[in-house]
Specification:
By secondary structure, the chain is α/β, with parallel strands linked by helices. It contains 17 helices and eleven strands. 40% of the residues lie in helices and 10% in strands. Its cofactor is pyridoxal 5'-phosphate.
């Protein structure tokens, strides 16, 4: 494709995007296709000769788009928002056109310096502690854009692990892996599943802390667990607090958690605010950010609630040098003479980095802080409207505290009728929602996600939900409401008690297979979902805590096997990373 062809088809693609956004309501929110649909429509092998780009675009509309879930549809109420906006798309287009791989200042000075500036803008807009702002007087902290919140959690955990191991080993020459069985991390039962994945990848133990009836981590149980583990000879090294849990958008008490963590020097406190952390751009939401001064790291996703398209996840740390020392690998071919330039390859897992800051810069400049605040407040107002509609209908109940755009509701029946309700909703193709298990009950998550959402979108959705429910409730007896008390009447017991030492309804009945499929849209079986009652749950995956004794036995056995199988290599010493790279 030459320049003139790119100009021609580029304009056509822009026109297509504009038309798609303007007429998106004419499409079903989600497909009702079966897996493997696309394989039947496309050839088994790539074309040997060039094809017309016009044909490619036609195939895109006729074959690809029928299988797309439209995350920016007014009736998409699943998961959390997929941040998107025209300024962000244009910024990403320029980033792709430039094509720079900004792993160091020398590889693209503009990418490195803009990221630093934008991350400081972002931190100040959220009202974060000055310790996270790189240009604040006396600050040793700073931030970087990662690919996802999962990366942020993993990077923070690896950094915490490195710090804890360095403290344990002191000046000895013992290999770092020897200390792994001793390390233990902590997260709420409502924490995101990425925490479990991070601990698996880092080969450390994870202890799950129960949540209270509002979905918040029980601080008293966290304190007791840390005390018990310390007494057992383990090293507590990492605690994850969540602001805006996936299951019910609950806010952990960062202040009380932070006070507990401060009593144990080996603990790194990470605060995961992937969705709700962005709400701190609103002064009235900063009541939930109280205690961030205790945090060693904090992350939030502009690609969820700040109109910036994926991928873009912001991570700030209190001490950049601790982060860099954990991830620093510096072979000769990556070195340069500009020692004062920021090399963001030391701030995360990948070496290669896209020019992510460009789209976030476009968003901040185009909307301004006030425009972003207005967008989030609109979501909050509409969620409250939906909550009011649900509470006024005695057949339904709301299970979570509605602070942002998420409402967790259910019919006042057993779980099976609610499974069927969600299946009917999703099978219609006219709305899309997801389930979760919150406070021990199956709930349907209704999240306002559309940038230009209106009250009409909410009212239309509620009327359709009621229509589906009426079909189901004809032969079902209602339960007495078991929803938790309102915050005003709540009595909490989570404070620590002492110091820590050391279309209308579908008339056709769904088949069992389709009912299972459309009521569990996060690719897990009903059995897996129900099994989460004993493990960490976020509506996604079950979390298991491995028995410490089993880990120790396996570690010892692996060490013995390794020694027996490698006796011939006993004289080979470790080689410095930089020398090996060169």
């Amino acid at each position: 494709m030459n320049v003139e062809e790119f100009r021609k088809y580029g304009k056509e693609v822009i026109d297509y995007i504009c038309q798609y956004g303007s007429n998106i309501e004419e499409r079903d929110v989600a497909p009702t296709l079966d897996p493997g649909y696309l394989k039947k429509l496309l050839p088994a092998d790539a074309p040997q000769s060039p094809e017309s780009f016009k044909d490619v675009l036609e195939d895109f509309e006729q074959k690809i788009m029928p299988g797309v879930v439209h995350w920016n549809h007014p009736k998409f109420f699943a998961y959390f928002p997929s941040g998107n906006s025209f300024p962000s798309v244009l910024g990403d287009m320029l980033s792709s056109a430039i094509g720079s791989i900004g792993f160091s200042w020398a590889s693209c000075p503009a990418a490195a310096e803009l990221e630093t500036i934008v991350m400081n803008w972002y931190a100040k807009a959220l009202g974060l502690p000055k310790a996270f702002i790189s240009d604040a007087p006396g600050s040793t902290g700073g931030g970087a854009l990662q690919g996802s919140a999962s990366e942020c959690v993993l990077v923070s955990l690896i950094t915490a692990r490195a710090r804890a191991i360095n403290e344990l080993k002191g000046h000895t020459s013992v290999h770092d892996s020897v200390f792994l069985p001793n390390l233990i991390a902590y997260a709420s039962r409502e924490a995101h599943s990425s925490v479990e994945k991070a601990t698996k990848m880092a080969l450390v133990k994870l202890r799950i802390i129960d949540a209270d009836e509002r979905g918040r981590m029980r601080v008293d149980l966290l304190q007791q667990a840390i005390q018990n583990d310390a007494n057992a000879g383990l090293t507590p090294f990492f605690v994850v607090a969540t602001v805006g849990t996936t299951g019910g958008c609950a806010f952990d008490d960062i202040s009380e958690i932070g006070k507990v963590c401060r009593q144990v020097s080996s603990i790194w406190l990470h605060v995961d605010g992937a969705y709700a952390g962005n709400s701190f751009i609103l002064p009235e939401m900063r009541v939930f950010s109280a205690g961030l001064e205790y945090a060693d790291s904090f992350n939030t996703n502009p690609n969820k609630l700040l109109l910036t398209n994926f991928d873009a996840s912001a991570l700030w740390v209190r001490d950049v040098m601790v982060l860099k020392s954990a991830l620093n690998v510096n072979p000769l071919y990556l070195r340069h003479e500009h020692i004062n330039g920021v090399d963001y390859r030391h701030y995360g897992i990948p070496l290669s980095r896209r020019f992510r800051a460009l789209k976030l810069w476009f968003v901040f400049r185009t909307y301004g802080v006030k425009g972003l605040q207005e967008y989030i407040r609109n979501h909050m107002v509409l969620a409250k409207k939906f909550e009011m509609l649900v509470r006024k209908d005695e057949r339904f109940e709301v299970r979570n505290d509605v602070h942002l755009g998420l409402v967790c509701f259910r019919m006042r029946t057993g779980d099976e009728p609610n499974h069927l309700l969600l299946a009917q909703i999703n099978h219609s193709g006219k709305m899309h929602m997801t389930p979760a298990k919150f406070n021990g009950r199956y709930v349907i998550r209704f999240c306002v996600t559309y940038e230009h959402a209106t009250e009409k979108d909410i009212l239309d959705a509620w009327n359709q939900i009621k229509g589906f429910a009426e079909e189901i409730l004809r032969d079902v007896q209602l339960e007495i409401s078991s929803a938790p008390a309102t915050p005003e009447t709540e009595r909490t017991s989570s404070e620590p008690t002492g110091p820590v030492s050391g279309k209308p309804p579908i008339k056709k009945k769904l088949t069992r297979t389709k009912s299972l499929r459309f009521s569990f849209t996060r690719s897990i079986s009903r059995e897996q979902f129900q099994s989460q009652s004993e493990h960490l749950m976020d509506g996604c995956t079950p979390i298991l805590v491995v028995d410490p004794k089993t880990i120790q036995q396996n570690f010892q056995q692996a060490a013995e096997d390794n020694q027996n199988n490698n006796t011939k290599l006993k004289d080979i010493s470790d080689v410095d990373t930089d020398e090996a790279s060169n």
